[in-house]
Design brief:
seven-stranded mixed β-sheet; single chain; two-stranded parallel sheet; alpha/beta
Length: 193
């Protein structure tokens, strides 16, 4: 094998190998104007759907934020909206914080939409690895399932909003993934032909 193409960047996933060519993502979304929206997707968690919803409701009820939760419980109360068929892309472009489980899909979405993140880790190694990479790059807060409660969730949320270094860092990391994606693979192959 002459080349190993990696849909990432060295900044995000440093791999030491002379045959690695980082190609980033196919699409990196521009930075959108953020609104008072919070998106939550912690489906791949050991935390029950009821507890997920209860903590989110207790943390953000009566707040100025509209909260959209991907959760099996259907709720539409004041500023809290929950639905298991929630299309995350419809809300992430407006959101200021993404609370998620560290799955590959959610981590990629967070990067793609330049999202401040609170990652609720579970026992899946790759979720923990994704969360640790975001922490290493000062792009997120990580809460273990045992720390998933109103106090720690709200403190993490406020810290993200009160210190713009997290947004600056996620913007830089997302920009590092703007390498051409599949087009870069095609160009590299064509250069060898």
């Amino acid at each position: 094998v002459k080349y190993k193409f990696v849909y990432s960047s060295f900044d995000y996933q440093p791999i030491i190998d002379d045959n690695i060519i980082y190609v980033g993502y196919d699409n990196t979304n521009p930075v959108y104007e953020k609104n008072k929206v919070i998106v939550v997707s912690i489906a791949n968690s050991l935390i029950s759907a009821n507890k997920q919803l209860r903590v989110i409701k207790q943390t953000f009820k009566d707040s100025p934020y509209e909260v959209y939760i991907q959760n099996k419980n259907f709720v539409n109360q004041a500023n809290i909206h929950s639905n298991n068929k929630l299309m995350l892309n419809n809300y992430l472009s407006k959101a200021i914080v993404f609370i998620h489980d560290g799955s590959d899909i959610n981590t990629d979405l967070a990067l793609n939409y330049h999202m401040n993140q609170i990652i609720i880790t579970n026992s899946f190694d790759h979720h923990i690895s994704n969360a640790n990479m975001m922490i290493k790059n000062n792009c997120a807060f990580k809460l273990s399932e045992t720390l998933y409660n109103v106090k720690y969730l709200y403190e993490s949320f406020r810290a993200l909003l009160d210190n713009n270094k997290y947004q600056t860092n996620i913007d830089a990391l997302a920009k590092s993934l703007d390498l051409g994606g599949t087009n870069k693979i095609i160009e590299t192959i064509n250069e060898q032909v």
